[in-house]
Amino acid sequence: MTMFEELIAVLDKATTKISLIEPDEKAAARLKEVYPFHEETVFGVVLSKTGGIVIDNWIRIYGSGKYDFYGKNTSLSEWGATIIAEDIVGFFRWAIMALSVTLPRIRCSGKVWI
């Protein structure tokens, strides 16, 4: 099972509303050129295979499409952080603090997330 298939399986079991947004191929290609990430990590799959994920019509996780990781980080990144999600009003932003362009690799439950 690929990481994308695993992600879909997890999202299908969610007890809250989850919307998987279609990716934009041009946005995904641009992301791959600018940010080094592994496509078989959870976050790499979100970036390369989705246009973003909307959780309970409230939280938006950026991908490569409607909720564009590259576009948001070009226009909103502050304090050297990499922004990965926000709420619908944009008040709360979730970020990964990165000291370099290379995103850190994070492990949780045995899976590499970034």
Structural write-up:
- The chain has 114 residues and is of the alpha+beta class.
- The protein has one domain (3-112).
- It contains four helices and seven strands.
- The chain has helices spanning 3-12, 25-34, 42-49, 69-76, and strands spanning 18-21, 52-55, 59-62, 81-87, 93-97, 107-108, 111-112.
- The strands form two sheets. The protein has a five-stranded antiparallel beta sheet with strand order 1-2-3-4-5. Strands 6-7 form a two-stranded antiparallel sheet.
- Strand 6 and strand 7 (111-112) form a beta hairpin.
- The longest helix has 10 residues, at 3-12.
- The protein is globular.
- The two termini are 18 Å apart.
- 25% of the residues are buried.
- Residues 97-114 have low confidence and may be disordered.
As laid out across the biggest beta sheet, the strand order is: 1-2-3-4-5
The figure for the number of domains is 1
Q: Beta-strand percentage?
A: 15-25%
Strand tally is 7
Helical stretch count?
Answer: 4
Radius of gyration: 13 Å
The biggest sheet, with number of strands, parallel, antiparallel or mixed sense and barrel status, is: 5 strands, antiparallel
- The percentage helix is 25-40%
Q: What distance lies between the first and last C-alpha atoms, to the nearest angstrom?
A: 18 Å
- The SSE order reads HEHHEEHEEEE
Residue ranges: pLDDT <50 for 5 or more in a row?
97-114
Mean pLDDT: 78
Q: What is the overall shape?
A: globular
Structural class: alpha+beta
